[in-house]
Write a structure and sequence with these properties.
15 helices; about 300 residues
Length: about 300
């Protein structure tokens, strides 16, 4: 137990500076980028909206669960399936805080490859989504109940001061966002310390997960257990230190944050089994191939 606590504190101290910086930047990204601007560019055809939604998703400070209501909103406003699915992959797969933690724990090479892999994975799934014959829902008419009662009703909006915007950004960064992903961060750190502490787990990894079977484990574990992109970094680090194939570790790092029971259930309900099956198939294949590619680079 003493060794477990020591390792847990080590990981906590290691990721905390990057988390603080990441949360701070995420708060101001959340405050300064209006939702209307995101919606504006995701309803057209072609590769551009897919790539744009992928890039936006890589920087947005939203986890897998938080991206679901945004995706549903995009869908109801008429966005095409490709940008929606690309957004659902890129948004939870990485973030500013996750990239900073990855740089702190795993190094620059690992971090650059994660960013590259998420872009590739998001665009691939987006292209698949646009290839599916599926008509988006028409945009619903948004009305003001006061205008319906009185056509002369005038909308008034109070313009917030710089101080109010800053306070709102800080509140989101250090109160709302930690509430959203704080538990997953803690679970990830605890799992990392658990893997690094107890030898039977290390023995299993060294015996069974150093080769190709590690990819099978990564896919199954990633689909069954959700860990946010930031929290998965120390877990992946501890698995690799125990001997896990680095390519399989990359696969787990890519698929784990994206897949969750919430994602599967919402995709099935909103878009049907056809879209869900295609989404999972491309997610699994692309994450495994990108993991193999990472291993082939000699990391």
């Amino acid at each position: 137990m003493e060794n477990f606590i020591r390792i847990f504190l080590h990981y906590t101290y290691e990721v905390m500076p990057a988390l603080i910086v990441g949360f701070f930047i995420s708060g101001f990204v959340h405050e300064l980028i209006p939702e209307t601007a995101v919606l504006k560019y995701l309803g057209s055809k072609g590769l551009k909206p897919i790539f744009l939604s992928t890039v936006i998703g890589t920087f947005l400070p939203v986890c897998c669960w938080g991206s679901l209501p945004i995706a549903v909103s995009l869908y109801k406003k008429g966005a095409r399936m490709g940008p929606i699915l690309a957004f659902l992959v890129a948004t939870p797969a990485t973030s500013i805080s996750a990239l900073l933690v990855a740089y702190s724990v795993l190094g620059i090479g690992f971090t650059l490859y994660i960013f590259f892999a998420v872009i590739v994975m998001g665009v691939s799934i987006g292209i698949m989504g646009n290839a599916i014959k599926y008509a988006p829902k028409p945009a619903g008419k948004i009305t003001c109940p006061h205008c319906e009662l009185d056509p002369k009703h005038i909308h008034t909006h109070k313009r917030r001061t710089l101080k109010e915007k800053s306070m709102s950004a800080l509140k989101y960064a250090f109160i709302d966002l930690p509430k959203e992903i704080g538990l997953e961060l803690l679970i990830g750190l605890l799992l990392a310390a658990l893997v690094a502490t107890y030898l039977p787990i290390g023995y299993m990894i060294k015996t069974y997960l150093t080769g190709g079977f590690g990819y099978v484990f990564s896919v199954v574990f990633g689909l069954l257990m959700y860990i946010c992109s930031t929290a998965s970094v120390p877990l992946i680090d501890s698995l690799m230190k125990q001997g896990m194939n680095h390519g399989a570790a990359m696969t787990l790092l890519l698929i784990g944050p994206v897949a969750s029971y919430g994602t599967i259930l919402v995709l099935r309900k909103e878009y049907g089994m056809k879209v869900l099956s295609a989404f999972l198939a491309v997610l699994i294949i692309s994450s495994v191939l990108l993991g193999i590619g990472f291993q082939a680079l000699g990391y």
